[in-house]
Write a structure and sequence with these properties.
Elements (H helix, E strand, L loop, with lengths): L3 E8 L5 H14 L3 E8 L1 H6 L2 H7 L2 E4 L4 H7 L11 H9 L10 E2 L2 E2 L2 E4 L3 E5 L1 H6 L8 H9 L9 H14 L14 H15 L11 H10 L5 E6 L15 E3 L17 E5 L6 H12 L1 H10 L7 H4 L2 H6 L3 H10 L10 H18 L3 H15 L6
Parallel strand pairs: 1-2, 1-3
Antiparallel strand pairs: 3-10, 4-5, 6-10, 7-8, 7-9
Helix pairs in contact: 1-12, 8-9, 8-16, 9-16, 9-17, 16-17
């Protein structure tokens, strides 16, 4: 008998692929005649490529929540809400980190089940700090002082700069994308740009070639970087044996006015394409991956970064990861959910390019924000909020 095959697409990292391969292997063992094949794409493609074309080829897609507006407009992903019981929905609402579940609900439809939770947080090498007679920063001013010593880096890919700028805006009390004319309050937005510029000018130009993965690879393999104030977290680097040195993670510092820094929600969900011919089987599999037991055991132990709150509190996962989950839970629980309207996704990259140019070359922060607002207004033409 020919096996029934489900084809899935995820992104290329040990946090993404190995836990899905592990769950697929076990699901196949429990369901003879079923084959689940996972393929991978780059982190950049994951964050910005059009999911419509992928949905024509793949049954299962690992996606980020800003794509929900595009998914609605193009009919690419199944609405999972009618397929779940009321008890299942309640379970996801109460046992999922922060707004990871709610982030996939858009206009009353659920486009993915959350399987991975992340937000930018701080990271450090305690041994490098100690070797340089430095303490872990507690406030933004401490980060700047440490950066003057050449010990601080941050990822400065356009999308990363854009999202960290957005996080600084939200941390200072701005609402984002609530006004169709401007993305954020002008005074707060320019102040956040200046904060990023002040930090970036203390770093080498290589930061503009770093995404979070590349940053953590350097932190784990060299002794040049002691601290990063914010980058999307990867618990893998806090696990023994993953890198040459372990990276420790922590919640972000306080701003200089004493406010808690909020960052922008990341993580992933697992979706079913509307082209999937085996919807019932696909639903059974994604339920398997997203259930609390699998998240806490098979998925998390295989290198995943679960979305379930009960997994983040699990003693075994924290023992494996230098208490990564306990140390960074606050950043995810308070993280801001990005806009999800059709057309938003491109804004991250194009708006981020304006911010990267400002951080690298200087200029007038007001003019930069005007450019970002113009891109924002143009992006609204992609669909309604």
């Amino acid at each position: 008998m020919k096996p029934v095959t489900l084809n899935g697409i995820t992104w290329n990292h040990s946090r993404a692929l190995p836990p899905l391969v592990a769950t697929a292997q076990r699901f196949e063992e429990l369901h003879p005649g079923v084959e689940i094949v996972w393929r991978r794409r780059s982190l950049h493609e994951f964050g910005h490529a059009d999911i419509t074309e992928l949905a024509k080829t793949f049954d299962l897609l690992v996606v980020d929540h800003p794509f929900t507006g595009d998914a609605e407009a193009k009919g690419a992903l199944e609405d999972l809400l009618p397929l779940l019981t009321a008890e299942e929905v309640k379970d996801f609402e109460t046992d999922t980190m922060g707004q990871c579940f709610e982030s996939y609900v858009y206009h009353g439809r659920l486009y993915a089940l959350p399987i991975d939770a992340a937000a930018p947080a701080a990271s450090l090498r305690p041994d490098v700090l100690a070797r340089n007679g430095a303490e872990t920063p507690g406030m933004w001013s401490d980060v700047i002082r440490l950066a003057h010593r050449g010990l601080v880096r941050m990822p400065a890919f356009p999308a990363d700069l854009f999202l960290n700028w957005m996080g600084l805006c939200v941390s200072s009390g701005a609402t984002v994308a609530s006004n169709p004319e401007q993305l954020a309050d002008r005074q707060i937005g320019t102040a956040a740009l200046e904060m990023l510029r002040e930090l970036a000018e203390l770093m080498p130009a290589e930061i503009y070639r770093l995404n979070p993965i590349a940053l953590y690879e350097q932190m784990a393999s060299t002794d040049r970087i002691a601290y990063c104030p914010f980058a999307y977290t990867y618990s893998n680097y806090s696990r023994e044996g993953f890198g040459a040195k372990r990276v420790r993670f922590a919640d972000p510092v306080l701003l200089n006015d004493g406010r808690t820094m909020r960052t922008v929600l990341g993580g992933t969900g697992i979706a079913i394409s509307t082209s999937c011919a085996e919807r019932s089987l696909a639903l059974e599999y994604i339920r398997f991956v997203a259930n609390p037991t699998c998240q806490r055991t098979l998925y998390g132990v295989a290198g995943g970064q679960p979305a379930r709150r009960s997994a983040w509190r699990d003693a075994e996962l924290n023992a494996l990861s230098d208490d990564f989950f306990l140390r960074t839970a606050g950043s995810v629980e308070t993280a801001y959910v990005r806009p999800r309207y059709r057309g938003y996704v491109a804004l991250q990259e194009h708006g981020g390019s304006c911010i990267a140019e400002f951080c690298r070359d200087g200029g007038d922060a007001q003019l930069v924000l005007e450019k970002v607002d113009a891109l924002y207004r143009a992006s609204l033409g992609g669909g309604s909020q």
